[in-house]
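Sample intake sheet
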Amino acid sequence: MPESIFLEHVGDSPRMRILQYLIEGRDFDYTLTDMLNAGVSWGTLNTLLPKLVELEIVIKTRKIGRATLYKINLANPTAKQLTNLYDALIMHQLEKIEQKTEVLAH
């Protein structure tokens, strides 16, 4: 799997993978099982998530049965800055692709 532009800039660590996953799906909330799609192990997720919740970067949104759902806390300054960085990196990458496409078209 190619490294994302975000992880290339902030470092490819399990914590950043979880945050990237939540930033990409910022409009939704996720169970722990969903977050395994971030490419981290169950043990790592269970170790890192409580710390992210404690720092209020990630918040618990609701419970469905026994499952607790989580999402990125965009009211938190750190989470907001990481989200802004993610968006800026993606926009910059898209602009570079667009410029290359224009050059090839001429």
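Comment: The chain has one domain: 8-105. The longest strand covers residues 58-64.
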